Amino acid sequence: MTKSRIQENYETKIFPELKKMFPGKNVMILPRLMKIVLCMGIAKIAKEKTAVKEHTEELTQLSGQHPITINAKKSISNFNLREGTPVALKVTLRKKRMYDFFDRFCNIISPRILDFRGFNNKLDGRGNYTVGIKDQQVFPELNLDKVKRTQGLYVTFCCSSNDDNMSFQMLKMMGLPFLIENDRRK
Fold this sequence. Notes:
Number of strands: 5
CATH superfamily: Ribosomal protein L5
Shape: globular
Largest sheet: 5 strands, antiparallel
Order of helices and strands: HEHEEHEEH
Structural class: alpha+beta
Oligomer: single chain
Number of helices: 4
Distance between the termini: 47 Å
CATH topology: 50s Ribosomal Protein L5, Chain: A
Strand order of the largest sheet: 2-3-1-5-4
Radius of gyration: 18 Å
CATH architecture: 2-Layer Sandwich
């Protein structure tokens, strides 16, 4: 099996650079990209069976694998939600598909986002980073003639390290376009 361009770059350049940046750290503590999770909320359109099927096909095209459906665990009357109703679609990418998606996301998808200047640099406190995308139409894999409604999704980059600083440095070195501090709009 051939390695992805990003995986090869990580192993040959980024990992040795991380060793230099964080000397004295155990090699096993240094961050690695473990998985990428794509999650699309569909609670508002769950009553339309064709809409759920369409978004399942879209997420399959984006990721290259079939998503799982997440159902509501409890009924909540204030949200008009019944137990067992589909509320989200989720795909977990690992290994080669993960690196290929990361490459496409950094180099093709991110520049296509409207008014894109970079992603904020706030990680979740556990070394993971989540990006919210408002419109799935920025993905070139989708046939825009078949897209009937815009739907957002979350992309979560899960790292092996619990240290935000180390994970941030790794993601930045891998090519994730972060917002430069001086360029922020206020």
